[in-house]
Amino acid sequence: MSAFPEGGTVALTAGDPGLAGVMVGLGWTVEPGVGPLAEPVALAIVCGDDGRALTPEHLVFFNQLTTASPGIAFSPTEGAQRQDAEQIDVDFASVPSDVMRIAFVTYVDPEVRGPGTFAAVRDAYIRVARPDGTELVRFDAPPAQPETAKAVLFGELFRDADGWAFRALGRGYENGLAGVGAEFGLDV
């Protein structure tokens, strides 16, 4: 296991050719405060070579557990081994060749408790692990300005030569899902 700074990249399959897939875990804690608590929601966006979602169906989130492309799915939420708020499984061999990038975003859901930001969100992270849970890389992903960030691009898996790599990002969006949608070509 190794920690990475923002912008850091690690080759996953180049160093471990037998690595057939990974589990991407996202987590955080929400500090109690006055008023409604922020409700962070994880989202994976499956992108082509232009960096945009292949189609609107190429998303994985609580209401769409798999995508139009095979090999990417939300993990079940129950289990004693679970340490993350959300987990998404990626089976590299099943991911179609037109998928070049899988972006992992967390946003504060305005429909659950009203508009909010990451101001009360602490200890945000993304981690990439083997399917057995052995951690390969972890990135602590606080946005630069949590008081105004309504969504954060934690990191991404991307094709690297003949394999897969991970990049830590931590980029915040003040305009929440609208900003995410504009970047990834989605109407959200």
Taken in chain order, the helices and strands follow as: EEEEEEEEHEEEEH
How does the overall form come out from the CA principal axes?
Answer: globular
Output mean pLDDT.
87
- What structural class is derived from the secondary structure elements? mainly beta
Number of domains: 1
**How much β-strand is present in the residues?**
35-45%
CATH topology-level fold name: Lipoxygenase-1
CATH class: Mainly Beta
According to CATH, the homologous superfamily is sav2460 like domains
Explain how this protein is built.
- With 188 residues, the chain is mainly beta.
- The protein has one domain (2-184): sav2460 like domains (Lipoxygenase-1, Sandwich).
- It is built from two helices and twelve strands, in the order E-E-E-E-E-E-E-E-H-E-E-E-E-H.
- The protein has helices at residues 110-113, 176-184; strands at residues 2-3, 9-11, 21-30, 40-47, 59-60, 72-74, 86-91, 101-108, 121-129, 135-140, 151-160, 163-173.
- The strands form two sheets. The protein has a six-stranded mixed β-sheet with strand order 1-10-9-3-7-6, with no helix packed on it.
- The longest helix is centred in the last third of the chain and has 9 residues, at 176-184.
- The radius of gyration is 16 Å and the shape is globular.
- The termini are far apart.
- 37% of the residues are buried.
How do the strands and helices of this protein lay out in sequence?
Elements: E1 2-3, E2 9-11, E3 21-30, E4 40-47, E5 59-60, E6 72-74, E7 86-91, E8 101-108, H1 110-113, E9 121-129, E10 135-140, E11 151-160, E12 163-173, H2 176-184
Parallel strand pairs: 1-10
Antiparallel strand pairs: 2-12, 3-7, 3-9, 4-5, 4-8, 6-7, 8-11, 9-10, 11-12
